Amino acid sequence: MNDRYLAKTIKKKTSGFFRVSLLLFGVSVALLITSTVLLFSQYQQLETDFFNNANPHLIEVCSFSPKESVGVTEFLQLDDLDNIDTMLAHQGLDDYFVFCEYAINFGISDNNGRIFFVHSYDEKASTFLGQIKADEALCSVELPNEFITLNVPRIDVSEGGFSSSSSSELPLTLVPTASYVEFHSDIIYVGYSTLQHIIEKMYETTWDDFMNRYLTGENFGINIVDRIYVYVDELSDSRSAATLLGKSGYNIVYALGAFEDMRASIDTSLWVFLILGVTVLFVTTASVIISFKNHLIMSQKDIGILKFYGYSENRIKRIYNRIITNIFFLIFSIGTILAVSLSVLYINTQTLLFTLVLLGCLVVFLLAIRFIVISMLLKICKTDTLALIKRTKQL
Amino acid sequence: MNLQSDDNALPILHLVNASKSFADKTILCNATFIFEHGKKYLITGPSGAGKTALLNVLAGLDHLDDGRIETETSTVIQYLFQDVLLFSDLSARENLLIKQMTDPTYTGNLKNEIISNALTAVGIDHTTAEKKVSLLSGGEQRRVQLAQILMFSPDLVLLDEPTANLDYKNKQELIELINTLFPNATIIISSHDIEYIPNDYIRLELQNGDFNNER
Prior knowledge:
The complex is a heterodimer. By secondary structure, chain A is of the alpha+beta class. Chain A has 12 helices and 10 strands. Helix content of chain A is 55%, strand content 18%. In chain A, strands 1, 2, 3, 4, 5, 6, 7, 8, 9 and 10 form a 10-stranded mixed beta sheet that branches. In chain A, a hairpin with a 2-residue loop joins strand 6 (147-158) and strand 7. In chain A, helix 1 (3-11) packs across helix 10 (313-345) and helix 8 runs parallel beside helix 11 (349-382). Chain A is elongated, with a radius of gyration of 36 Å. Chain B starts with 10 loop residues before the first strand and ends with a strand. In chain B, the strands form 2 sheets. In chain B, strands 5-6-7-3-8-9 form a 6-stranded mixed beta sheet, with helices on both faces. Chain B has a 3-stranded antiparallel beta sheet with strand order 2-1-4, covered by helices on one side. At the A-B interface, helix 1, helix 9 and helix 12 of A face helix 2 of B.
């Protein structure tokens, strides 16, 4: 027979109240772990869906309606890029940028007779859309990854009209891409330099020359600015930016306007959860420490009897320490099983890492409570034997 | 008064110039006394004279204020406390087992054999031995405590009011049992029930901080 038998025998004597108290503590810890892991997982999902997703940050400017001409809608011009940028800067917005989507507003056929509409973004967009290689074109996922040859028409501008009698070939590789912007199957996106190259081929001039003439109002038969986008870094700034653009006569698409202050709302919820969680933890911790204290007070006579029988203080400490450690190990095991099960449910490296950190915190927390309980035990063990056996009657 | 029963007797416990006060009462005042091997002593005295406090000191549970107690280190002392010091939720056998575990020399079947022998010796049968202590009568609980003591073959047995709260029959049986169980041990009993104590006990009255031999 050894201390393990004794610990087991003495454990049988624990009161129902103490057992219920420990059970409630275990349930509280389990619930806190469950809700924390779930909340983290949900927060991560929100991060992916909203905060780290470009779409809710984008305001799409489609056209312009002058205030003085009700019902009139104008195409966007290159000047609008600067206008919008200046306007937002005056509004006090810092973390934003404005970029343009160019388009050649007629179809260009390939060698197989398919028609493609060529679009492109300016270089500012590459910071979050990425660079498109010169010999590639992004296309809808509905199209296969294949090599095509575009027949770029050479446009002859003459008085009163445009004509084309020849073309030059432009080889491209189609790269099906699921992107932030919905692709139509006849639209391809080329890099900014490729767009310049196409324009140069079409009008047999340099890009700079084309732009200079285009800005002076020369008619090239195309409206090269398709859309202007405003990317606002902070969702909470989206509403003011969108309002300003709308008031200035720009027609915008701002589908996620209802969610622009979601981060603030989520952050508030997280703080509320943190405060509630800490409160629950504090209350249950206080409750379990009081329960342990009561249990040890009730055990004073038992400890006194053991001392009377001849057990040393150290041996009694070892016996009760074993009981206390077993209890905490049981609670830790329940917490671990729950947390690991949940993180497996939401298979995700970040959740798993978070769970491990959470379990680390649980170990520290349980060790801290164990330290308090063991300190109380040591104090009782040091008490004089006669005082212990006379202090409490056995229940 | 310094009292020694026999100058040539072998001492098992020697109180030397012992002083002990408890609350505002003087229990021992520079008392010197030799308890001899194999002799039996009855400590008497009015309530509050300090009989229990004296036994607590002799058992090592309390300290003298002054003076010393001399005894051989090999002397096995067992103490039957006034209160029933048993784990009431556990069986009589388990209580013996827990007490036995203080001695690491007991191993294997020897443990069970010693426990069974001790329980049989005090008249606790197998069925009673498996019952929770809380279900046993006062007399049975006392017997279980005696069985705990018996397991250690003590040289000196200290008994504080062993017959307290027992009926007439149980009191008589318990005293007879004590004399039977420990024929060669030194026994020191503190009791108010002096009529049950055999005449061969040396009666010492604790009075004014010293022992007064009544015989």
